[in-house]
Amino acid sequence: xxxxxxxxxxxxxxxDGIPDEEIVERVRAGETALYEVLMRRYNQRLFRVAxxxxxxDAEAEDVMQETYVNAYQxxxxxxxxxxxxxxxxxxxxxxxxxxxxxxxxxxxxxxxEANSRIMNNVTSGIPDPERQASDHQLRLVIEASIDSLPDxxxxxxxxxxVEGLSAAETAACLDIGEEAVKTRLHRARHMLxxxxxxxxxxxxxxxxxxxxxxxxRVVAGVFQxxxxxx
Length: 230
What we know:
The protein is mostly helical. The protein has one domain: Rna Polymerase Sigma Factor, Chain: A. Helices cover 67% and strands 0% of the residues. The protein is built from twelve helices and no strands. α3 (57-73) crosses α4 (84-105), α3 (57-73) crosses α12 and α4 (84-105) crosses α9 (167-174). The two termini are 17 Å apart. Residues 1-8, 115-127 and 129-135 have low confidence and may be disordered.
């Protein structure tokens, strides 16, 4: 994925409290630059969801860009029957799952290899550059513990416990029933070690940090793809 210069950041504080749907209508009306508000509002959520499915930061970024481009190209299809955030998250989930299926067909890494890679990252003592900015070892352990959950439980846990979506919103994003969400969340929590469960409730909001450099990169890449500000 090529890097492009980030587009200017809008005064996001000026848009705090403005409903997504109002911004969507203004983007539809031609104020394309306001799409940045929506991207920066949901960048972290989409990153967390995508990385929880794919376990790969770079591929999660690609999913985010494709999600925003897809959503932008189909904004006229957003009917407001669900929250914009739910609609957007569902697009990201579907894109990530499609990539996961393609990876599996092409003989991607096994669960054993993925878990080995995760634990090596935690114990190597040489975190990746972005994590060097936040070298809290406990947070890395929590991330690894969440990341090691089976796919069907990990996605539910990230949406419910990390992102704070309701059971109904999570069910809509994953195309499953609310009871399935509740069951999977319960089992996911049970799978996590006892000593981590107490800490996860406090620190999970800080897990999988989404740094400004990544945020700028995604926003700039999306605007390049939709032909705005190039």
